[in-house]
């Protein structure tokens, strides 16, 4: 079985092919979206798919100029389904087997909403429940147990869709389109270096990270979806309790929990809130000496993982997801641990979160 780091290594080449074939892989969704005037987009997904939606929200809103909402499947299907008339509802599932996402498709159809499904896997079960089903264009003959290539490639799909649809709707001109494509290509070229920098950062802080009793992430804007993905990846692989917060909200209660044996990561990816991120970074050093920053700014130090790349903030999740994949992968491989045990497997079977039908 391939481990997380293997999928991380696979991602850049897959992303290159996706950019090369961008018009082909997005054409059906672009055709659907541009065929009528939608009031907004609702992305429905679970786990990493939910976090992909959160991370893709800023880029979709920037280029398509409509509100983008992100919701978990059960909350949508049972509590929040009444308010999306004239929205395009996209139910996303990497495997296409998530039972709760399939339930969300059924609810959207019952409401008479315009709903489509998106999956990595060809002919996945969810395609049997909906008229319009699309693929991310990232499938290379194998699955992705930890969605480690699925996160950047799915984010890339939504980014490519947004600029293709925006160009067709005359929301952007050819120059802005070309600039966005060039920035995505720049990110892809940087991905192997980002993996190397993440490995180096881990080695420089290995003892503190491995011995953490709790990990806390704070981020905002383009980084907030990554904060949630970090919580998921650290928890499901290392078993270390990990929580994530919006940067400002981190100061309204959660920061009071920080102890000396806690590890705190500050995600600093946008200009608007960079000042706040730096203040929180410095303040947390009064509470624990295990405070780290992940940033696109030119900042030096063993406690900083910096990638100096000049691209639009809304595109950065595709690159900065790499450290939140690499670090827990290294913890698990170095300590020979797996949080996904036989007991977790039995519990998952009991609640039946996946379907093969």
From TrEMBL:
GO terms for biological process: fructose 6-phosphate metabolic process; protein N-linked glycosylation; UDP-N-acetylglucosamine metabolic process. InterPro entries: GlmS/AgaS_SIS, SIS_dom, SIS_dom_sf. Transmembrane segments: none annotated. CDD domains: SIS_GlmS_GlmD_1 (cd05008). It holds the Pfam family SIS. SUPFAM superfamilies: SIS domain. Residues 29-171 form the SIS domain. GO terms for molecular function: carbohydrate derivative binding; glutamine-fructose-6-phosphate transaminase (isomerizing) activity. Keywords: Repeat. This is SIS domain-containing protein. It comes from Paratissierella segnis.
